[in-house]
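> example.struct
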């Protein structure tokens, strides 16, 4: 073979090899598989989500998050679980408007492969429903009211033994406390349709109540009153945790005799607050750093979290001419300040205790608990916070 023909042949082979490599790489770029996912079988989600995207390979998380958008615009946070990313809205989604999820082109895998086209999904948001107790003599049974069907459906049939309940953040499960035959109360869990009932904490003669879910549903905090075997009397409550993964339960403070009630997780799940009975304050525990914060208040109530979990609205008593009056305060957990609100317009205003108000959680509403069972407010403690005397 002549030398110039050999050179031409080599160049053709190199060109073909480069073309094959390019085509193979380009196909890999466009071969990223992704689909929208939910935690429900029918694909619907509650007003607090979550909605997720599942990829077929590890992704560059920042490049994915930067290219996700929602219509209408919806603030929230992302949580990654291996090759899936979940989005939790900060505010409830309007079921009438629905939600559209878009992933723009340019998202990259951890190996640098690129998604070349934009993909859009329409997410179905289920209608809001009410979860409530139908009372019997001492307790009640769980019912769910559908605004769409204008119909109430029984979820439990305990003969009126349920004393307390709480839906999880996404509305797919319900924890409830029910009296048992030993004089105590146990913790149970059921799905939103009441199809299955599972005993999760056998409390025996102890009195377990006030369940509260973490945002991701992995933990349930609750108040537990141990029964003195000698006197048969219930002791002051302590906060316990139940782990839905390990199916184990333990005190929040195993080696400390800290009494408390009415646990509440922050919306991001990082903080757990409760009312510390001995300190007469709201005690807030950072579950990641173990840092504690105490907010003194004489009112045995938990208060209410801001949507991002950075602030806490609560009530306390202030001096007045005849007797102490209730006042509203906002605790800023970032700069550790407490400020009174509605000061100028609150004269003569009577702030009802927290159990009087409906408590909205995810897409379920908990009706006035004061009519259903006795539930005091949350108690916590804080010594480092100082209030501006001019605001009290």
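> example.seq
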């Amino acid at each position: 073979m002549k030398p110039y023909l050999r050179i031409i042949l080599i160049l053709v082979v190199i060109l073909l090899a480069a073309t094959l490599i390019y085509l193979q790489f380009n196909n890999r770029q466009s071969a990223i598989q992704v689909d929208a996912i939910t935690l429900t079988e029918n694909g619907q989600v509650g007003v607090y989500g979550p909605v997720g995207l599942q990829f077929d390979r590890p992704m560059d998380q920042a490049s994915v998050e930067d290219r996700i958008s929602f219509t209408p615009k919806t603030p929230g946070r992302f949580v990654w679980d291996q090759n899936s990313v979940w989005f939790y809205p900060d505010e409830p989604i309007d079921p009438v408007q629905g939600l559209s999820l878009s992933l723009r082109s340019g998202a990259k895998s951890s190996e640098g492969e690129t998604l070349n086209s934009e993909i859009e999904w329409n997410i179905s948001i289920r209608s809001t429903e009410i979860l409530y107790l139908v009372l019997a003599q001492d307790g009640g049974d769980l019912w769910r009211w559908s605004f769409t069907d204008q119909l109430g459906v029984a979820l439990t049939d305990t003969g009126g033994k349920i004393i307390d309940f709480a839906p999880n953040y996404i509305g797919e499960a319900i924890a409830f406390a029910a009296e048992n035959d030993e004089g105590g109360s146990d913790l149970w869990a059921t799905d939103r349709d009441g199809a299955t009932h599972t005993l999760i904490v056998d409390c025996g003669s102890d009195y377990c109540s006030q369940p509260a879910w973490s945002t991701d549903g992995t933990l349930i905090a609750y108040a537990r009153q141990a029964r003195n075997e000698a006197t048969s009397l219930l002791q002051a409550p302590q906060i316990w945790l139940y782990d839905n993964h390990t199916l184990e339960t333990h005190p929040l403070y195993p080696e400390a005799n800290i009494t408390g009630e009415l646990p509440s997780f922050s919306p991001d799940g990082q903080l757990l607050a409760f009312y510390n009975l001995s300190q007469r304050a709201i005690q807030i525990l950072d579950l990641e750093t173990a840092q504690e914060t105490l907010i003194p208040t004489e009112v045995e109530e938990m208060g209410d979290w801001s949507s991002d979990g950075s602030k806490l609205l609560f009530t306390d008593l202030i001096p007045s001419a005849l007797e102490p009056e209730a006042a509203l305060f906002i605790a800023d957990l970032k700069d550790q300040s407490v400020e009174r609100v509605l000061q100028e317009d609150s004269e003569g205003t009577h702030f009802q205790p927290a159990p009087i108000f409906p408590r909205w959680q995810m897409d379920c509403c908990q009706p006035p608990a004061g009519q259903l069972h006795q539930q005091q407010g949350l108690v916590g403690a804080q010594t480092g916070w100082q209030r501006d005397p001019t605001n009290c």
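> remarks
The mean pLDDT is 83.
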